[in-house]
Amino acid sequence: MSDRPGAAPPPAGRFVAPFVGGAVAVVAATGCDGTQSALAPAGPAAERVLTLFWWMLGGGVLIWATVAALAVYAIVIERPKYELDPTRWWVIGGGVVAPTVILTVLLIYGLGLIPPLVRDAPPGSLTVEADGVRWWWRFRYRTPDGPVETANELHLPTDEPVQFLLRSEDVIHSFWIPPLGGKVDMIPGRENRLALEADRAGTFRGACAEYCGASHALMNFDVTTQPREEFDAWLAAQAAPAAEPTSETAALGARVFLRSGCGACHAIRGTPADGVVGPDLTHVGGRPTIGAGLLPNNEANLVRWIARPDGLKPGAEMPAFDHLPKAELRALAVYLKSLK
Ligand code: CUA
Asked: What does the DSSP 8-state code read for residue 114?
């Protein structure tokens, strides 16, 4: 940058481009379908977070616009006359006073929004233990008849607070359902608490929001919010033992499952498979996706997953079973898909 008198001013386009880029980014961000968007809230906590986001964005844009306008003024318009007065007052006002006032107002406003976000659900609320595991989610509903375990699939009743108890079995993960509320870390050796409420029925997607290793980006889960009666029916079905195989192929799959040692890691309640290391598969056939939100749940994808989990999800601990004959792999998939 030169301050030689008479040098040509920089083209105005240089200052306009960032404005246009920012506007395009905002439009693109709001163009999501809403299943995993914090900009499409489906509950009071997410609405608060979104309100705070808009105020912070507004304050940030105000500060940025002020500073950008002063920069344009100094570089383009008032270029040849750099004098201490009254320039000094622009610097003190725009560079110190304005950001301090705006940021203080935003801080006070933001702090005021926090208490309801960290409050527990009332005693007696539905309670779900959520464990982060590399790279999937273990969910355990506390019920009067004992825990009901699922994996990578969460159903929640609408219009009532749900208490989550967040834990980790290995490294730090972060539990986040963007349309329902803010994210909270899952820390080994510790139990964090989060209350969420959904105020409309829908299907959403949750994600891990803390980098946790090779397949961090492949650690997601399906969320269904539904009226209480539908939720009760779903939970009762999840609590029931696995369905018996109804075809010869599925029966072969069940035998292959037990013979191949799958039950050392996976439980299928109602069968001898009672492993606790991996996801509970008692009702795996009814889940929308497999591999923690990785692939649509169908027989072809189940075969792909069982044959080479590591090829689809780097670092996955499940061993490959591509040594099994194709017919047995397919039978396994048919059996698992039948476990609704
Ligand atoms: Cu778990 Cu990132």
From this structure: S
